[in-house]
Amino acid sequence: MIHQYPALIITVPLIAALLTVLVSWLNKKWCFPLACIGILIPLLAAVGLLLEVLEKGVVTYQLSGWRPPIGIEYRIDHLNALVLLVIFSVALLNLFGSRAKVLAEFPEKTGAFYGLSTLFVTGLAGITITGDAFNLYVLLEITALTGYALIGMGDRHAPLAGLNYLIMGTIGASFYLLGVGFLYLITGTLNMAELSVILPDLYGSRVVIFAFFLCLIGLFIKMALFPVHSWLPNAYAYMPTAASGLVAALTTKVMIYVMIRISLSVFTPAFAFSSILLKNALVWLAVISIVAGSILALAQKSLTRMLTFIIIAEVGYMVGGFWLGNRDGITGAVLHIVNDAAMTLCLFLAVGSIRFRLNSDRLDDLRGLFRKMPYTMLALIVGGFSIIGVPPSCGFFSKWYLIKGGLAAGSYEFVAALLFSSLVNVILFFRIIEIGFFNAPPPGQPVSHAQPIAGGISEAPLGMVVISLISATSLVILGLSTNILVGHMIRFIR
Amino acid sequence: MNDILTLVIAKYNYWAFVVLMMIGLYGMIIKKNLVKKIIGMSIFQTAIILFYVSIGAKENATIPIVAHGSEAAGHGSSTIQAIDYINPLPHVLMLTAIVVSVATLGVALALAIRIYRQYHTLEEDDILSRINQS
């Protein structure tokens, strides 16, 4: 059975997604349990795979028995076993945390929503697990298409934001496809392991260098690095809150994983980091991304939009950390993939609860919210502290590795940008504390669709609060288990 | 000048894809009408599909069915020479890519319909001015 785990990771959510849509025509009540099964089984398989990889090393799986040059190979090592676990854990938490929101936001379309989000998770897991460059493109597009549809389900300006994202996302994916085309042209294979064997002899070729650039540009568009970030804020801000925890927490991080995979596994570190000019240019790009994201976050008047710009700054953390090209930097980047997924999930779940209760997320409307929704605000503040990098939370440890890597590589501009962004995050979250705790609620403000409860507490539904708190706790647990993560699971960087 | 001309003529198919890609990018970035943007996107994807199809092609080769090749090229009926057949793999990959691009087009047009219902126009400038008014 353990032998078939890699196949279960893709097939179970795929079938569950299709069944969810079919079943929704019969009875909408079955959609949620089906989606749960579709996430839970691969989550267990991912845990099993991680243990297997920790024990025995790299696991390979040939789909329907076709050997690599012809068939598609799944290849699981320390890096993607960890990312798989993160994907399914985040998806499961978001599934439970968004149940009440789904029922309230689109009672008619629950089947479509659960189907799309399970398919979205399938795509992400496929991107992570596959060892085939073209297969990766197809799954990239599955993820992106379901992402556009999820964004388009939102209200107000969501369709327009979704269409802008679609056009940018298609340009990005097409660039990646073109890069893979050039690699195929010169090597005649699409299997990543085989590419990494054939390519070193061809590193002088201009075709290979061009292909590397095309792949990187495509991925940068997909992960919203600074000059090409413009699609992200609107798309994530207008997305239905039920989906935002999932899409915002995972999309950019998985793209960063793909960048690491392409640079280190398809190409070798010696090639990727051979050009000092490229390394420095990309670290500077990351620095600009961090600084610009932080400054733009300060200018926002609504909570969700503020978070979207924080995501752009966090993308800069990971890209910069990776392109420092030393052990600490890359460890920090990989650790930050895990931590940032957890932090973003926690923040978006809390903001989702706030939007559910207040029907608004403008900073001015948060007045007195600590009294009204104490537990949700607690989760929000724990998430905020983790983004700032306060010690026991996980954000501190990945930032610590990134700063260590920056100092070791001598890129002081990167260290300065990290510190600057932490300072800005302090301002951002203390402003929320000030508004929510010290400013009295406006007199006689009608609370949209909340029942007045004695004592003034009107929390979000119990399930949402519990999930928010669980994800907040996970930030501290992740922080305390940094040693285990770095020592055992981020071992692929030798 | 002559060198460039020979380069263009020798690889004319690749130049055609470059031109198509640029037309597509121009449409996506410069045009203000959303449907024109979507058409640009389609042209862009088609250019890449044509690029893949073109790298599988070979001169004096036939479709990759064993019986055809050995009859046509006359290398002897028993041996199968790879040189007699075009490479089918890029074409097979592009079947998948065509499905992807059709699906993308479908989602894009569905979003465009929703946008039209909401704002009653598909001109980006008009939509943005409406958003700013409200």
Description:
The complex is a heterodimer of chains A (494) and B (134). Chain A is mainly alpha-helical. Chain A is built from 21 helices and two strands. Chain A has helices spanning 5-26, 31-56, 78-97, 99-105, 110-129, 133-152, 158-187, 192-198, 206-223, 231-238, 241-266, 269-272, 276-298, 303-323, 327-358, 369-372, 374-388, 394-409, 412-438, 462-480, 482-489, and strands at 59-62, 73-76. Chain A has a two-stranded antiparallel ribbon with strand order 1-2. The longest helix of chain A has 32 residues, at 327-358. Chain A is globular and about 70 Å long. Chain A starts with a helix and ends in a 5-residue tail after the last helix. Mean pLDDT of chain A is 86; it is low at 448-455. The relative contact order of chain B is 0.11. In chain B, 75% of the residues lie in helices and 0% in strands. Chain B has one domain (2-133): Helix Hairpins (Orthogonal Bundle), CATH 1.10.287. Chain B is mostly helical and 134 residues long. Chain B is elongated and about 75 Å long. The longest helix of chain B is centred in the C-terminal third of the chain and has 31 residues, at 89-119.
How is the secondary structure organized here?
The complex is a heterodimer of chains A (494) and B (134).
Chain A: H1 5-26, H2 31-56, E1 59-62, E2 73-76, H3 78-97, H4 99-105, H5 110-129, H6 133-152, H7 158-187, H8 192-198, H9 206-223, H10 231-238, H11 241-266, H12 269-272, H13 276-298, H14 303-323, H15 327-358, H16 369-372, H17 374-388, H18 394-409, H19 412-438, H20 462-480, H21 482-489
Antiparallel strand pairs in A: 1-2
Chain B: H1 2-10, H2 12-30, H3 34-56, H4 66-73, H5 89-119, H6 124-133
Helix pairs in contact in B: 2-3, 3-5
What attributes characterize this protein structure?
heterodimer, A: 494 residues, mainly alpha, two-stranded antiparallel sheet, 2 strands, 76% helix, 2% strand, globular, B: 134 residues, Helix Hairpins, 75% helix
